User: What shape does this take?
Amino acid sequence: MGIKRAVVVVGAVAALVAGPAPGVQASPGSPVRDALEQVVAAGVPGSYAAVVDGGATWRGSAGVGDLRTGRAPDPRGRVRVASVTKTFVAVVVLQLVGEGRLGLDDPIADHLPGLLPYAEPITVRQLLGHTSGVPRDIAHWQTLEEVDTKRWEGFEPAELVRRATDGVPLLFPPGTGFSYSNTGYTVLGLLVERVTGRSLAGELERRVFRPLHLRDTSFPSHQPFLPRPAARGYERLYGEQAPLTDVTTYVWSRLWASGNVISSPDDLNRFFRALLGGRLLPAEQLARMKEFREGALGPIGYGLGLMHLPSPCGGPDLWGHGGDLPGYNTWSLHTTDLSGQVSAGMNQDITAPVAAHQHVLLTVVPAALCGEAPAAVASTGTEIPYLGPTLP
Assistant: This one.
């Protein structure tokens, strides 16, 4: 199996599956439980979800969360949420904008002179919305095996930016296109540190994690452990016939501000409820965050660190973010009116079958939010991008 997975091909519209009964535990008859089973049946060890429906929370899982013990995934446990980190970082940047310490249209060179080797002015807004033209990432691995053997490799943020941009031209003139950039969010993390004089981890803790009582949420950098995991993360790195490799314990400093947050499905739901409910940002900054570029990522619109999707069943639009990294795939999506929320994932990602990725987004999410009986799946040929670290 090759490592390259530039996109997850989504050749279907979500089947509209009935939502869960409020407040009950997972059971064989639960529609979300059934949807999670479809993820596992597609070829991954386990899947899990936490759903908020009218104020009541349902949690469930399917498959295996630990291949050594055979235990089921624990939907109350922690996962690596990968690019969902970008929404957390965007909130801190926009708080600084609301405090008058930054301007959305400030050139980044005004705050971090010499960091980016480009003559063209690149603004804070462009970095937040992936319209800067800054290259995506460094080349992290050349083979599947290196996903395993390079797990202890450490990076500093400025080194990531330098290696991604030195001698590499902009993808397009700033503001004229869209290209998802993990490097751009690394720059934004450095911007937070320059403006505040404190670490990004400290600012996330002070401004977001602690005020919202997100006890399962943290921002490690060189610390490799995942405390109390919802499930251990796995990838098939040594050939189709080889056992899955456990990639739970990993130094993820290569992601930093683009994808380093650890959280839980419950904490993600709590975070997005606070954000979309106006608790984290002034109204003006929240409005700017929700000004999205239509079709930026296939069917997904992109604002400033926030994804937009139309409802799969004609209800309120969805806001949130997805994330990919070895061992963990995450989607956290929430209706505009916050009447429904779902944070779900699976414990295999870059080598997971396409069908498993389809079911997380196209079966579990509608099962949680739509409250309708299953419908036929129709092919659309749409593509949903892979959001994780650069693959060769």
In short: DSSP finds eleven helices and 14 strands in the chain.
